[in-house]
Amino acid sequence: MTSFEEAETEETVTCLHLTFYHPGQEEKRMFRCLDFCRREQVRADDTAKFGRDSSVCRYSLLDTRVSRIQFSLHFYRRLHTSEYGFEIKNLSKRTKLTVNQTELGYLNKIDLPWKCIICFGDYQILAEIQEGEAMDYFETHLHLAETPILQEKCLPSLQPIPENGISPSFFLSQGKSPTEMDENDL
User: Fold this and answer.
1) Mean pLDDT across the stretch 156-163?
2) 33/111 Cα distance (integer angstroms)
3) Whose CA is closest to 12, among 179, 144, 117, 133?
């Protein structure tokens, strides 16, 4: 046998990719304490905290509008499966946190979807989970976005168009309201 054949099987590691954006990131440099260059290992039993207080938070944001501890991420194994996930908890008494438009108040927590957008104040964070098998630790890989993650687009409200192709706005412009009829009545 060769040393290659005797080597232990390599485990894949769950990696949480976090892409940060703030409209004032160029001038205020609130992300200067974050390491965007490499993956970082975090022990499975550690809670990854994000906030202003660098003595408590693993990921420090240099902004007085950020709470001392803004939110935490906890790595866990789902019950009766071999899958791993993350739980996000809002630890700010002043600022609500949204995860894909689900609003979390103080001490509220939910499972982090495999891909989602986390928002608080003017901060936008795209979180993407890359699944792995390792149980003792996970990795984080931080990225910096140059453009907003959420693009606020003013789209006209999309109304369903009936099969006959006549838009409901056609009836409203003529002072009539649409009426429901059976297709056999035509």
Assistant:
1) 48
2) 27
3) 133
Question: How many other CB atoms sit within 10 Å of the CB of residue 161?
Answer: 11
Any idea where the domains of the chain sit in the sequence? 17-144
pLDDT cut 70: percent of the chain above it? 76
Asked if CATH classification 2.60.200.20 holds for the domain at 17-144, the reply, yes or no, is yes
For the residues of 85-151, what is the DSSP string, one character each?
EEEEEE--SS--EEETTEEE-TT-EEEPPSEEEEEETTEEEEEEEE----SSEEEEEEEE-SS-SS-
Q: Report the C-alpha gap between 12 and 23 in whole angstroms.
A: 35
pTM equals 0.74
Length of the chain equals: 186
Q: Which two tokens stand for residue 168?
A: 């409901």
